[in-house]
Automatic annotation (TrEMBL):
It holds the Pfam family DUF2489. It comes from Marinobacter vulgaris. It comes from the Bacteria. The chain crosses the membrane at residues 6-25. The keyword Transmembrane helix applies. Keywords: Membrane, Transmembrane, Transmembrane helix. This is DUF2489 domain-containing protein.
Amino acid sequence: MPLWLQWTLIIAGILAIALLVGFIIRQSRTLQESRKREAKTQAFQKERRESMVESIRVLAMAVEADQMEYSEACLRIKGLLDHVAPELLEQTPFRVFQEVHDLLQHMPTHRARQETDGRFVEKMDRERLAVEEAHADAIRRAATAIRHHPF
């Protein structure tokens, strides 16, 4: 084999090795950045979940201390449990949050409530209070249980 061909092949081999090393380094950096992003995302999700669990506990304490309406607490706790532990909504005693939500979800809230006729709002309030009264004991028991539940 001629000397010039040997040197050409050696240079081509070194060039191929250099390109492969560059590719490996670039892939390694991409992988590290991806791992950092994943770790950051997991930390954010963990913090968000802990915040939701804390909100559930605060709402439960408010129910236990009669500091908020049971219907509002049920709607809020149900919404938070949908993200934190939706399987709890199918278990006793937590099922009451889902039941009250289902009974009240058709009622207007916020701006829609303000724009609704006053007599209709009064009728809805009476219905809401009747639901609260019918489920009051179960709601209090569920609030105590959810406050002590290990998430």
